Amino acid sequence: MGSPFRPASEAATTSDSRPPAARLVQGRNGVVPGRFGFKLHGSHQGANMTFRRATAGLLLALACLAAAPPVSAQTTVVSTFNAGVQKYRKGDLDGAIAEFTRVIELKPDHWKAYSSRGVARRDKGDLQGALKDHSRAIEINPRNAGAYSNRGVVYRDLGDPDHALADYSTALAMDPSDWWTYNNRGVIRADRKDYAAAIEDFSRAIALSPTYAEAWFNRSVCRKQKGDLEGAKADRAKAIELDPKFSR
Fold first, then answer.
1. What is the 8-class DSSP label of residue 53?
2. Among 1, 71, 77, 227, which residue carries the largest CB count within 10 Å?
3. How confident is the model over 16-42, as pLDDT tens digits?
4. d(Cα 184, Cα 97) in Å, to the nearest integer?
5. pLDDT tens digits for 48-80?
6. In CATH, what number does 25-243 get?
7. Which residues are bridge partners to 26 per DSSP?
8. Helix H segments across the chain?
9. Could you tell me the residue ranges of all domains in the chain?
């Protein structure tokens, strides 16, 4: 399950990814301002490709509450959540899960804590626990595009591409600027050998984030499958220019 997810605190962070060479890789979306996300890797039979799950990411805006808890309780919730984030960053998954669980005990409708715990559980290999947490986050905040992206990651891990595709599409309907999820949906479509649709998704990801090397590399794979060797060569060269690891 391996590669680190980098959760955000109530502030903002940045992202990166490290796809393995010569594999179709599903990577998680990193954290950007206003998002909470993760990165991971996967594999694909018959094509060399990398992609991020975008996982995207979870929105960082605080959920609206019917009745806000006292200031002291709010402070405890925020500090405990951030403690979970820091423990995750240090690789202490059990500690992170414990902190996020404490947040949920203090504030049962804290959807970010559910999604964060879901990501940590996924990294520990607890896919069913992760699925349950992401689903609960969606129940609490059904307009949270990032939770759908995160759940899509888990569905693909579980070998359920239909639900993964549905979650990615739902996330994109809510947030059409989410280039991680375009990339991830493209990988699902490439898995199904729907290369034309995959190319369209990778092209959208590139248009939204022109320095996203993984999408250039993924599109090169699909173009090669479609017989567009010149296009594939150009995309591969661009991917290598952006990230030399794609030369391997």
1. E
2. 77
3. 332 222 234 455 433 222 233 333 223
4. 26
5. 444 443 333 333 323 333 344 555 667 899 999
6. 1.25.40.10
7. 51
8. 71-89, 93-106, 111-123, 127-140, 145-157, 161-174, 179-191, 195-208, 213-225, 229-242
9. 25-243
